[in-house]
Design goal:
By secondary structure, this protein is α/β, with parallel strands linked by helices. The chain has helices at about 115-125, 160-170, 210-220, 260-265, 280-295; strands at about 55-70, 70-75, 95, 135-140, 140-145, 150-155, 175-180, 200-210, 225-235, 250-255, 275-280, 300-310. The model is unreliable at about 1-10 and about 20-45 (pLDDT under 50). The structure holds flavin-adenine dinucleotide.
Length: about 325
Amino acid sequence: MSGNGMPGGGAEAEAAPTSARGDRMPSGAGTRGVPAASTGPDDAASAAPRPWEYSAFPVTVARREIISPNFLRLTFRGDALRHFAPWGVDQRIKLVLPLADGGLAEFGLLDDPTPHPSDWYTRWKALPPAERNVLRTYTPAAIRPEAGEIDVDIYLHSPDGPASRWARAARVGETLVITGPDVRNGWTGYGIHWQPPEQYASFLLVADETAIPAVRNIALSLPPTACGIAIVEIGDQADDVTVADLGPRVDVRVVARGETEDAVRAWASPDVDVAWLAGESGVVTASRRVLVRELGVPRERVAFLGYWREGGALVD
Ligand SMILES: Cc1cc2nc3c(=O)[nH]c(=O)nc-3n(C[C@H](O)[C@H](O)[C@H](O)COP(=O)(O)OP(=O)(O)OC[C@H]3O[C@@H](n4cnc5c(N)ncnc54)[C@H](O)[C@@H]3O)c2cc1C
């Protein structure tokens, strides 16, 4: 990854786990009322230093719900998820998709405490591609540590990539591993790109379907003083129910496939306090160019991250 995706350090594309750190906890992170504190009676016992901000959480598919024609909500449940940090917003997680036989290759991911990626990712990379679990990045749509659950809203690409294919076929009871933030590390900012300034009045969100869960969470985190626009590119208008209600501070403008760049050109203000862009990597790059080069938005106000790539995987 070429940067940490924060304003001033934008990233072209999401990649392997890194150790970029943020510095400030998001205000009212989009976690739907989950307390950001104690995780249970074994907190003290588990306070040993952890090599990485994230942990590996073994989970089971507990529920599946079709929320719109091309969106599937999977609820994952696992005892370890009581340690999942409820920071919300655009926090990234990885789904470690099961191998064809349902298993997990041995690359140390389930060691306790979870090793640093310089260990497990290196070992994963060294495995023959056919023998290693596919990794794909997602955003928790809801986090319920007290129930040991998270929801993930998965946009089903067509044609299918491995994650979309797996999700379509996933059955309740199936097991997999998720890597995500561990509350025992406290707030570090790792894996979060929405890190607006302390005070801001205006914002611009630019997204496509894959970034809708993040946009919904960001909308939940907005301070009462902020108002802005969310430009959301949606290929099948039947999926726009997924942005139907982002609250009174977000002016949602749904655009058709291929219209994002022009929409940014038409609607973005050069004075915007903070801009956040996520979605197909070419569209994100073009939209950022419009903001920074054409409209003159200071680059340090623009956070951007390619979430996927048209025509194939962004990373392995
Ligand atoms: C920080 C972050 C958060 C994210 N959060 C979410 C989220 O909450 N929800 C969500 O849905 N997504 C999210 N994404 C995006 C998700 O990771 C990508 O959409 C991912 O690529 C899906 O994996 P896949 O295996 O289904 O598709 P991939 O294999 O990655 O394929 C990507 C694209 O290539 C196309 N493709 C695949 N095979 C072929 C082929 N043979 N010929 C032509 N085209 C092909 C697919 O149709 C798709 O358009 C997030 C990404 C990041 C980086």
